[in-house]
């Protein structure tokens, strides 16, 4: 079993959510590499920032997450290898339901099952 690297105390808590957009709404992407982008949310202030994922590959998605400064991640699916690599970077990875709203996933992050 892999270990989770500790997050430095001065690192701000930012939750990243891999998303896909439809005509009517933005929702959790069911696929890691096929997500349209990463929505970064500061749960303390509600501030949001969207980062596109134009390449939509596993490597590009991993780099996007690590480069974003996210300390926590919600995804619909993640392979063990990517999950382990993100954990080694100190990112807490959780699995969410695509049927739930982004706000609900972020507010309930601690209750989501670990990936």
UniProtKB/TrEMBL annotation:
It comes from Pseudorhizobium flavum. InterPro entries: DiNase_FeMo-co_biosyn_sf. It comes from the Bacteria. This is Dinitrogenase iron-molybdenum cofactor biosynthesis domain-containing protein. The lineage of its organism: Bacteria, Pseudomonadati, Pseudomonadota, Alphaproteobacteria, Hyphomicrobiales.
């Amino acid at each position: 079993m892999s270990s989770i690297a500790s997050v430095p105390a001065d690192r701000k808590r930012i939750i990243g959510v891999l998303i896909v957009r439809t005509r009517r709404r933005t929702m959790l992407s069911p696929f890691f590499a096929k997500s349209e982008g990463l929505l970064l949310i500061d749960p303390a202030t509600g501030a949001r920032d969207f980062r596109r994922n134009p390449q939509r590959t596993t490597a590009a998605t991993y780099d996007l997450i690590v480069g974003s400064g996210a300390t926590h991640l919600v995804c619909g699916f993640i392979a063990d290898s990517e999950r382990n690599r993100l954990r080694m970077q100190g990112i807490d990875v959780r699995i969410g339901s695509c049927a739930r709203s982004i706000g609900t996933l972020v507010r309930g992050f601690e209750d989501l099952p670990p990936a």
